[in-house]
Amino acid sequence: MGTVSDAEKKPAVIFVLGGPGSGKGTQCANVVEHFGYTHLSAGDLLRAEIKSGSENGTMIQNMIKEGKIVPSEVTIKLLQKAMQESGNDKFLIDGFPRNEENRAAFEAVTKIEPAFVLFFDCPEEEMERRILSRNQGREDDNIETIRKRFNVFLESSLPVVEYYESKGKVRKVDAAKSVEEVFEAVKAIFTPKEEKVKHHSYAISPCIENNLTLKVSLYASFKKLLQTFSFLIGSIVAIQLPFISRVLNAIRILLKGYREELSFSDTYGPPVTETSLEHNKKVAV
Ligand SMILES: Nc1ncnc2c1ncn2[C@@H]1O[C@H](COP(=O)(O)OP(=O)(O)OP(=O)(O)O)[C@@H](O)[C@H]1O
Ligand SMILES: Nc1ccn([C@H]2C[C@H](O)[C@@H](COP(=O)(O)O)O2)c(=O)n1
């Protein structure tokens, strides 16, 4: 059985779908930064083709103005070229496939099946609000074209999402939330399962983490206090050493004298006391 050589290896493709203005481009930029994918926006490639002055330029421009979908053959060629030129092997293909024709043609030409479809689910009013305040100078960001694009999305693009849904390949994200919240949901989809388990088992909650930090700093302070205290004791002992040795010497001398006195009384009777003097006097009389 032959092995699959590097040349035969297919690139990993993730289709990014959602209504116009749902935030596909915004989130793709985040995924590129965190997960190393190359972002290919079908809309951006078509707009670049118009700017380049190619023979298809005028046709593409007219279709975009009308909110219509450019023939698959044109878009797929642009995508394939961009994939080859990128040098990467994992791609976010944003705004594609926009209809059933796009989907079937891509699979037939490239023989690539997407790993999954990232679907941004957003209410129409929110998408309209976002597009109208986008300010990127796009010719199709006007209310008339926006309405046409919404219709094309409902009629042609949603069935593609449903097709992949039936294959269990759709990862849906609530795109109505803030950019940060949406990216949290996107990150969870892109993070490998093992890593999620690892983080779940070993991650320290902020509360425990704070507690640990407190304990560590308390321990450090206590250690420092102990070091200062033993340094102080050491210094006192060192400074007072001559005095201490003199006191010890005096004690030693006193003890020695006492011991000698004891041994004297053992040899020559009890020490001379007032009572014994009286006794001697009595004996003399
Ligand atoms: N979660 C969000 N909350 C608020 N505004 C957002 C959010 N995501 C994106 N936007 C803003 O909405 C506008 C549309 O976003 P973006 O261009 O990413 O959408 P899109 O789905 O790629 O649109 P299109 O399909 O028309 O190219 C941008 O101005 C963007 O800054
Ligand atoms: N697969 C595609 C993608 C895009 N277009 C055209 C029609 C869209 O209205 C326009 C803008 O796309 P967007 O930047 O919103 O993704 O580009 C197409 O014909 N086929």
Automatic annotation (TrEMBL):
Compartment(s) of residence: Cytoplasm; Nucleus
Residues at which a ribonucleoside 5'-phosphate binds: 47, 68-70, 95-98, 138, 149
A single GO BP: nucleoside monophosphate metabolic process
Pfam family, any one: ADK
Cofactor(s) this protein cannot do without: Mg(2+)
A GO term for molecular function: ATP binding
Entries under CDD domains matching the protein: ADK
UniProt main location, coarse: cytoplasm
EC code: 2.7.4.14
Record: residues binding ATP: 21-26, 134, 177
TM region positions: 225-244
Enzyme class: transferase
Keywords noted in UniProt: ATP-binding, Cytoplasm, Kinase, Membrane, Nucleotide-binding, Nucleus, Pyrimidine biosynthesis, Transferase, Transmembrane, Transmembrane helix
Reactions mediated catalytically: dCMP + ATP = dCDP + ADP; CMP + ATP = CDP + ADP; UMP + ATP = UDP + ADP
SUPFAM superfamilies: P-loop containing nucleoside triphosphate hydrolases
Family as reported in the entry's similarity comment: Belongs to the adenylate kinase family. UMP-CMP kinase subfamily.
PANTHER family linked: NUCLEOTIDE KINASE
Entries under HAMAP family matching the protein: Adenylate_kinase_Adk, Adenylate_kinase_UMP_CMP_kin
Domain notes: Consists of three domains, a large central CORE domain and two small peripheral domains, NMPbind and LID, which undergo movements during catalysis. The LID domain closes over the site of phosphoryl transfer upon ATP binding. Assembling and dissambling the active center during each catalytic cycle provides an effective means to prevent ATP hydrolysis.
Function (record text): Catalyzes the phosphorylation of pyrimidine nucleoside monophosphates at the expense of ATP. Plays an important role in de novo pyrimidine nucleotide biosynthesis. Has preference for UMP and CMP as phosphate acceptors.
Protein name: UMP-CMP kinase
Species whose genome carries this gene: Populus alba x Populus x berolinensis
